Amino acid sequence: MANDLDEVTGPINEQGRDINVISKQISVQVGTGSLIFEIALWAVLPLIGGLALLTGALPQTYGLALLVLGALPGLVFLFMKISALAYLRKLQQKIQADASQIDNYLEQRVVVLNNVVGLVAKAIDLDKDVMKSVAAYRSGHNADAERNQASQKIDGIFSRISLACEAYPDLKAQAVIADAMRQNSYLQKEVTAARTLYNDTVGMWNQDVFAWPTKQIVAARQGYTTRIPFTASAETKAAARSVFF
Question: How many C-beta atoms lie closer than 10 Å to residue 106's C-beta?
Fold first, then answer.
């Protein structure tokens, strides 16, 4: 039987294909099969024991044992679900902690940005609404989508500052701006590392909430959904496609 994906004779896309993150949360759901599975864990052995006692198919001792111990699989699964719920809640807290780390570095970039805005405001056109939305990071209340958007806006503003510094030698020569750009470069590396950690944790979450039976059943009952990974800004993607040499 041939490979489903045959790299030798299969169709080849000569132009390549860009990869994008799908910004969609998928709800975790379970069907009637999972419900039947849970009921079976509680009922099958006691039912067999009861029938054995009524029909005399098994010795009375065995029948009573099945009645008494028949709920044991259900109890074990119950404790497994309790453990799974504790694990998923702990993983949620880790996602929040990783996201908070990104926020910390982004807020530091906002501080750096505010320090140089006054020096470059006359040279470049800074959008006041953009600055307000970026400064909102100080409130500490940001959804995943808002965090990603604010990060993209910060990237865009620093790119414009860099272009302004190239166009205006007087700006580039100022020590404050030079120091700010060095700090920004360092913080951007930290943001990248924090994003990687965040995305790793999100990837773990997205896999675990669909791990049937225990975690998926718990996730569905709790109304959990998948999480959206942190994505690169439009400016970063455009820059990556540029010709550097």
Answer: 21
Distance from the first to the final alpha carbon of the chain: 46
DSSP code at position 223: T
Distance of CA 14 to the CA centre of its chain: 32
SS3 2: coil
Dihedral sign for Cα atoms in the order 35, 39, 42, 45: negative
**CB proximity list for 46: less than 8 A, separation 6 or greater:** 66, 67, 70, 71
Tokens (6 digits) for 123: 């040279």
Q: Give the Cα separation of 215 and 206 in Å (integer).
A: 11
Q: What is the pLDDT of residues 102-160, one digit of tens each?
A: 888 888 887 787 777 666 665 555 555 555 555 555 454 456 666 777 777 777 777 77
Residue with token string 């439009």: 234
- Provide the whole-model pTM: 0.76
Helix axes 32-55, 72-120, angle to 10 degrees: 170
